[in-house]
Design goal:
By secondary structure, the chain is α+β, with helices and mostly antiparallel strands. It folds into 2 domains: 3-37, no CATH class; 41-181, Nucleoside Triphosphate Pyrophosphohydrolase. Helices cover 22% and strands 48% of the residues. It has helices at residues 85-97, 150-159, 165-181; strands at residues 3-12, 17-24, 30-37, 41-50, 53-63, 68-72, 75-77, 99-111, 117-118, 120-131, 144-149. Strands 4, 5, 6, 7, 8, 10 and 11 form a 7-stranded mixed sheet that branches. A 4-stranded mixed sheet has the order 1-2-3-9, with no helix packed on it. 21% of the residues are buried.
């Protein structure tokens, strides 16, 4: 077990808080942990089942931290500590893609990068999709929506086109959930 000796916030903005904790390990040795605290977020698997097959919607956007454009499932948060997970998921889906869902199924809650960050990530499956107008926030003004077949999406996961670990984890959880539905 690790005991916190002291904690101090070293940085804050509307999206992120960073703290430095002095800790004591079970063996008595002290150390420092840098921790990023973020409010809850969600990720949505937008699944479109048609007579032509199964498709997913992805958003493509520039990710500043890694300096490139990437494909991923719609995801994000509202910079609020207390949120209704389904309301958040429906809101993020509409905001980023313009999609509304007839059915939202809660699949699980994951932690994003818990080696350095404290952030819950609620996972939902969205079905019965209707496309409308997106309403991206200022950081998302460059979003592009893509609809791809499930086969193409899975190939993108395997060939390194999609590198977002949250998208990969969400798909894995969805596939396990679907298998168990019978």
């Amino acid at each position: 077990m690790i005991k916190t000796i002291s904690s101090r916030e070293v940085y804050r903005n509307p999206w992120t808080r960073v703290r430095e904790d002095v800790i004591e390990r079970a063996n008595g040795k002290r150390g420092i942990y840098g921790v990023i605290d973020k409010d809850p977020a969600c990720i949505v698997v937008p699944l479109d089942k048609t007579a032509e097959g199964e498709f997913v919607y992805l958003v493509e956007q520039f990710r500043y931290t890694v300096g490139g454009r990437f494909l991923e499932f719609p995801q994000g948060g509202w910079e609020q500590a207390e949120v209704d997970p389904e309301e958040l998921a429906r809101g993020e889906l509409k905001e980023e893609t313009g999609l509304t869902a007839e059915r939202m199924t809660y699949l699980t809650m994951l932690q994003i990068a818990y080696g350095v960050m404290n952030q819950k990530h609620y996972l939902f499956l969205a079905e019965g999709l209707v496309l409308g107008e997106a309403d991206p926030d200022i950081e998302e003004n460059d979003l592009q929506l893509h609809r791809v077949s499930v086969a193409e999406f899975e190939e993108m996961l395997l060939d390194g086109t999609i590198v977002d670990n949250c998208t990969a984890a969400a798909w894995g959880i969805y596939r396990l959930w679907r298998e168990r539905q019978g």
